[in-house]
Amino acid sequence: EVQLVESGGDIVQPGGSLRLSCAASGFTFSNYWIHWVRQAPGKGLVWVSRIDNDGSVTFYADSVKGRFTMSRDNGKNTLYLQMNSLRVEDTAVYYCARGDSEAYDIWGPGAMVTVSS
Amino acid sequence: QSALTQPPSASGSPGQSVAISCTGTSSDVGAYNYVSWYQQHPGKAPKLIIYKVNQRPSGVPDRFSGSKSGNTASLTVSGLQAEDEADYYCCSYAGSANNYVFGTGTKVTVL
């Protein structure tokens, strides 16, 4: 079965750090771009970041640029999102999603990140 | 990058049709034929239902259709069914600088 599964969600204080993981299975992970998309409670979807097939190119939304770092280990079929200097407004469900410029065709179930004192 | 504009809500009776608009700019929706639509039920991950403006992934019923004119894309759900009650989001590629932008979301209610 083709799937993505996020892990690492937690409650963290403002200014803290957290690393999310996204494990892929059922497809050739190294052939695909992967994205992070987040959804604050009761709000809409927001694109966060993207990494290309081999991890050499990354892009970030302005709201997380300089604080979040996306990386991947194709040998382990795993994607990572290192989140530093977390803010209350980063509170959201974080989804990893497989996709290119056309669309996101596979989504994980999501990981909840809560930033609160 | 501002979110694409969708109506907050739409509704219809079973068997009827509902159309949802998605308005962007000449830098996103108007610039690329890379508009996609996602269905999201409460507490669940989004599901792709339309890609490249009007293409349906395998397994998506042909009751779902997409179109685009200028800076506005549209999703039409025909023959509404109870299971179509969900939130719907559009998304557009916005170029290598801005990457991707989602719509504000529309809650569809089946009366």
Low-confidence stretches of chain B: none
Q: Please summarize the sheet with the most strands of chain B.
A: 6 strands, mixed
Termini separation of chain B comes to 35 Å
Quote the beta fraction of chain A.
over 45%
CA gyration radius of chain B, whole angstroms: 13 Å
Shape of chain A: globular
Cα distance, first to last residue of chain A? Answer: 39 Å
**Rg estimate of chain A, integer Å:** 13 Å
Per DSSP, the total helix count of chain A is: 0
Mean pLDDT of chain B: 95
Q: For the report, how would you describe the main beta sheet of chain A?
A: 7 strands, mixed
Helix content of chain B: under 10%
Helix content of chain A: under 10%
| Shape, per Cα inertia axes of chain B | globular
Contiguous runs where pLDDT drops below 50 for at least 5 residues of chain A: none
Q: Secondary-structure element sequence of chain B?
A: EEEEEEEHEE
Oligomer: heterodimer
Kindly state the mean pLDDT of chain A as a whole number?
96
Look at the helices and sheets of chain B and give the structural class.
Answer: mainly beta
